[in-house]
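[audit] Reproducing an earlier prediction to check determinism. Same input, same settings, fresh worker. If the tokens differ from the archived copy the diff job will pick it up downstream; this log only records the rerun itself.
[audit] input (304 residues):
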Amino acid sequence: MRPTAASSVPPHPQAVAELHDLVIDWFDDNARDLPWRRPDAGAWSVMVSEFMLQQTPVSRVLPVHQEWLARWPRPADLAEEPPGEAVRAWGRLGYPRRALRLHAAATAIAQRHGGEVPHEHDALLALPGVGEYTAAAVASFAYGRRHVVLDTNVRRVFARLVSGTAYPPNATTAAERRTAGGLLPADEATAARWAAATMELGALVCSARSPECGRCPVASRCAWRLAGSPAHDGPPRKGQSYAGTDRQVRGRLLAVLRASREPVAQSALDAVWHEPVQRARALDGLVEDGLVEPLAGGTYRLPL
């Protein structure tokens, strides 16, 4: 679908409705069987998945999500545990502050909402650690509400399909929100299905590095493909290195702390990384972020 100079939103309602049908029909035939999508999953399963899936692939999330829900099937179950147990159970998913935020959200749900994940977007947005994307995603995927749900996959699909560019901007723009709003079905149930379908299309077909246009249900309408799939000419896309970074050091320090039920001596932490200045900086960062508690005698533990 070719973009116009005045707007990146397709101008014809019939064309938009056809997009809905094509993408949702594709989703019905090709969607992965993921536990948080099943009819009996519940809103808490959806919320846990949304926290875990931020910057982490599905394949790594699946086993941790299963273990998490088996141990804490309700928000109140998690809220009864110290936050350090959430960090311990987070394992190697990365970005462990998400575990603290999810614990804080569970505590707020238990205290303010009778242990039930709230239905309304504003109530979700008021929870600790829940931003615009997560609130919209939980309201849409758990409760079938009509919201614009813009993750990286959806933004890439819309950039190619509507705007004719290989990749979206590095940060979400007002123009992207207008485009997404213009494409959002009016019916709540269809809007929720569209949100899940476009996300899956971006994950499985319209991928960042190797888009499979031959499998795409809307390839014949894609502005980027119709323009000859031009190369990205915007700001450089930022890659995320890991080896040798403070993130890697933090991960190794946390692995030692997660493995121990007792306070860990400084010497045990010193053994995981050879460079003392970087190691100390990483440990200080973990303490500042509330992921590690220093104790008397030079020992450390996960937070209680």
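[audit] rerun output stored. Observation attached for the diff report: The radius of gyration is 22 Å.
[audit] end
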